[in-house]
Amino acid sequence: MIIQAIANKLDMEKLCTDSYKTFQIADFGCSIGPNTFFSMQNIIEAVEQRHHADHGNSATTLEFQVFFNDHLSNDFNTLFQALPPSRPYFAAGVPGSFYGRLFPTSSIHIGHSSSALQWLSKVPEEVVDSSSPAWNKGSIYCTGTEKEVAKAFSGQFENDVETFLNARAEELVGGGLMVILMGGVPDGISLSQTSIGKFYDFFGSCLVDLTKKGLISEEKANSFNLPLYFPSAKELKTLIERNGRFSIESMDEIVEQVKSAHALPNTQNHISHIRAGTEGLIKLHLGTEIVEDFFECYAKKHVETRFVFAENGADNTLIFMILKRK
């Protein structure tokens, strides 16, 4: 879908003039690889194909610069050590939140973000305030079933998307593309009904177990919330159109067909996968000393209940978008 979008939507004549043959790509929320390397390689190959289709054998060779962006806490050492040795681009790391400016004005030709934009810049303050009607007691995420909680999370998401789009609009050249793949929910279905929602329920139940054992205080357990929000495609479309700085070139909902592919996974591999995405949050909120206890509890419960989140709810949905800078 990315290759097709670049072939059909990218104006190489406008983006690459005779005096400017360096093509710059940024991956927002790169993590530590290898997924980001595959994505960047695909984009570069598609751009080269488009460039040669426009100019044939007389096409000037493009040079590519790829910027890998993620939070300051990201393990950039691991990322750089894993860089493909024969990569056809110059690589650089850009640490910092993508909810703000990261690059000079009109310097990026293609922006890319995969499985990152559903992460909020912060947990809404109301959901951890016991005096607020949006207090999210008993849950660690926005289930979508509690009106005030959902309002708080959606408000934070709206602010974050506006900030993200405004920053990218300054950084992308006119006509540049922004590719976004992110988690979402089908219109009219709450996150709690989906497979990923069932997983968060299971994850949260481990906090309850540790609280009962006296390893975590109730106050800390009740104030632990994941800074995540999964919008519907309709909701996201409205926010992008309201911002007005990008045209939506394509927008698709992709259903993750995971039920048939997931028997009970290998516990060690499964725990490693879960730790990669959540250990930092647990350390930050609950303390380093509780991490091993938490994942021991998770592993034991995972085996005892034979929990497979893919089989316990509606299929997960991904939202895929190609935006063009106006």
From TrEMBL:
Keywords: Magnesium, Metal-binding, Methyltransferase, Transferase. Gene3D superfamilies: Methyltransferase, alpha-helical capping domain, Vaccinia Virus protein VP39. InterPro entries: MeTrfase_7, MeTrfase_capping, SAM-dependent_MTases_sf. One of its GO terms (biological process) is methylation. GO terms for molecular function: metal ion binding; methyltransferase activity. This is Probable S-adenosylmethionine-dependent methyltransferase At5g38100. It comes from Theobroma cacao (Cacao).
